[in-house]
Design goal:
single chain, alpha/beta, 8-stranded mixed β-barrel, 45% helix, binds ligand C2E, binds calcium ion
């Protein structure tokens, strides 16, 4: 039932399982969600581990569907990836995030950096760099304030990934390797990869204080990052104990419920504006 072109809709047939039907229904709704204004961007703070000062935020997309209610990204992002919808959705998130950050800047709230998740499907498009350039031009966003989060699979899936990432880096954009430790990175390509940051996956952070295996992995990621000169961001940090463990190892930035969940822009600004 896949591989149907843009703007086309799937139809039900009687023999389909309920699961498959639910999936098709969601995909059809997802196709129209952007133009119907059902998508929004929330922001989650990233803080300096040592000082607790706000250093940036990650943009995380939210879907509020009139038919389905609030749908978690874990349910619709994979669907968006499989159907190709992620290209227009991801590009919209990029533009909307830059627009928001620049609007804030114009009204006295300076977010030092903002992070946007990039799908392999976006990067694969030959026009991706042009699309990105156009967003930067249209919004006036300084590329030095933009960070793009990619997963290790990008390097496997996109044939000219190195060259593309190198071009992004030359534009002044920061690159972060997301969900680090969950994929199959080989050390030899990690060394050559033009990324500046590694994001330690929350599945390891959750084991701090209880799972010696997770702690050992975090220690080795920190050692690796130090010798290869990567900055490290830990995600899914929920407790002071986790934060202390990461701080002691020299982890640069923390992201997680301890410092704040992803919230709508107005709430984010209200929480993080420093009143002089
Ligand atoms: P991710 O990029 O790994 O984003 C981090 C996820 O962890 C977010 O889930 C965030 O809300 C959640 N999180 C942050 N701190 C904590 C914590 O302390 N505890 C726990 N339990 N969770 C925490 P979310 O927003 O549900 O997004 C899930 C995934 O969906 C993201 O994982 C990312 O892979 C994808 N995603 C979200 N927005 C976009 C987007 O605009 N484009 C693309 N391509 N993917 C996106
Ligand atoms: Ca991410
Ligand atoms: Ca992640
Ligand atoms: Ca993740």
């Amino acid at each position: 039932a896949k591989a149907i072109g843009r703007g086309q809709f799937h139809f039900y047939t009687p023999e389909m399982t309920r699961d498959a039907q639910a999936r098709i229904r969601m995909e059809n709704l997802l196709r129209r969600a952007l133009e119907n204004g059902e998508m929004s961007v929330h922001l989650q703070p990233q803080v300096d581990t040592q000082t607790g000062v706000l250093v940036g935020a990650e943009a995380l997309v939210r879907w509020n569907s009139p038919e389905l209610g609030s749908v978690p990204p874990s349910r619709f992002i994979p669907l968006a990836e499989d159907s190709g919808i992620i290209v227009s959705l991801g590009n919209w998130v990029l533009r909307e995030t830059c627009r928001q950050v620049m609007q804030w800047q114009g009204s006295g709230f300076d977010l030092p950096q903002v992070s946007v998740n990039l799908s392999v499907k976006q990067l694969e498009r030959p026009e991706f760099i042009d699309t990105l350039d156009q967003v930067l031009v249209d919004t006036g966003m300084d590329p030095a304030r933009l960070k793009l989060e990619i997963t290790e699979s990008v390097v496997m899936a996109v044939s000219d990934a190195f060259e593309l990432l190198e071009r992004l880096r030359r534009l002044g954009i920061t690159l972060a390797l997301d969900d680090f430790g969950t994929g199959y990175s080989s050390l030899s390509y990690l060394k050559m990869l033009p990324v500046q940051q590694l994001k330690i996956d929350q599945s390891f952070v959750v084991g701090i204080g209880s799972n010696p295996g997770d702690e050992a992995i975090i220690r080795s990621v920190m050692a690796l990052a130090r010798s290869l000169d990567f900055e490290v961001v830990a995600e899914g940090v929920e407790t002071a104990e986790q934060a202390d463990f990461l701080a002691a190892l020299g982890c640069h930035q923390l992201q997680g419920y301890l410092h704040g969940r992803a919230v709508a822009p107005a709430e984010f600004r209200a929480r993080w504006s420093v009143v002089a």
